[in-house]
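Lecture notes, continued. The same structure-token format from the folding unit now serves as the input rather than the output. Read the line below as a description of shape only.
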């Protein structure tokens, strides 16, 4: 777990947590030379903490710890790193911050879990928001609010690059798992990035995205295609649950990944209900039946 230089002033360390959800592992980014900003410390793996500390130059220090969002593969190491270095943790808010009313209702109804798992204990030392910046010898890091993959998801800009967290990645589409994932917010955030002129994305997993706007537009097109599949399936089957729709649509995924696919379908269904494209027979839940209007 040695650091790899991506460009002057920027290195990354890949956490040892590969999985179907995390690809080769969470990417932890180090910006700066003697004073370092760490973006996404990663999972609670002691060896990864040691690797981050070992990457500091003699006499160097961690000045700030930035977290894009508080899933278990991104944020749990933030507190141990803060304790070891004295650096404050900066993020949008705790894991239940920023949920829409419908997502809050889903959480109250017990619809939790799925995806990478939520870091329920996460609490930043300082809250940062849209338009803020984190300035220092490393340069200026801008803050963008980009909810969707998770309500408290942030992206960070630096020297024309964008740290996209799990919103846009090159190796896979992003998981959108209610109540933390919100498809309406996700599509708006990705469309926003597609309209920017960032030169490269550094995502939470996988390699840098060298064609960022094209990738963002491709993700939107993918989601539009998935929406069409859901509407076609409802037309063919009549009222159906997210589980039934996922089984009909995701015919090329391993059975172990179907629960994640079901969450993605549910996210689309909630978005379609909010746009009055479909209806449901009661409160939105994982077992609710949805139908065309």
């Amino acid at each position: 777990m040695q650091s790899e230089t991506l460009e002057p002033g920027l290195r990354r360390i890949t956490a040892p947590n590969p999985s179907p959800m995390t690809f080769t592992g969470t990417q932890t980014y180090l910006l700066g030379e003697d004073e370092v900003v760490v973006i996404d410390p990663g999972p609670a793996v002691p060896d990864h903490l040691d690797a981050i500390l070992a990457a500091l130059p003699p006499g160097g220090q961690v000045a700030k710890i930035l977290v894009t969002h508080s899933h278990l593969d991104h944020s749990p190491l933030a507190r141990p790193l803060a304790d070891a270095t004295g650096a404050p943790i900066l993020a949008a808010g705790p894991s239940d911050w920023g949920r829409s009313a419908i997502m809050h209702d889903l959480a109250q109804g017990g619809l939790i879990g799925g995806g990478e798992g939520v870091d329920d204990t996460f609490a930043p030392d300082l809250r940062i928001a849209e338009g803020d910046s984190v300035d220092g010898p490393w340069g200026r890091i801008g803050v963008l609010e980009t909810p969707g993959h998770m309500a408290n998801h942030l992206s960070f800009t630096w020297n024309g690059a964008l740290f996209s967290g799990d919103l846009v990645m090159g190796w896979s589409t992003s998981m959108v798992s209610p109540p933390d994932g919100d498809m309406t917010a996700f599509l708006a955030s990705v469309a926003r990035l597609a309209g920017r002129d960032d030169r490269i994305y550094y995502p939470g997993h996988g390699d840098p995205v060298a064609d960022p706007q094209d990738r963002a537009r491709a993700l939107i097109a993918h989601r539009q295609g998935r929406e069409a599949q859901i509407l076609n399936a409802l037309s063919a089957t009549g009222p159906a649950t997210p589980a039934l729709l996922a089984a009909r649509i995701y015919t090329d995924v391993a059975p172990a990944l179907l629960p994640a696919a079901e969450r993605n379908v549910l996210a689309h269904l909630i978005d379609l209900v909010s746009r009055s494209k479909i209806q449901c027979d009661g409160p939105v839940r994982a077992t609710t039946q949805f139908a065309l209007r």
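Point for the exam: The chain has seven helices and 14 strands.
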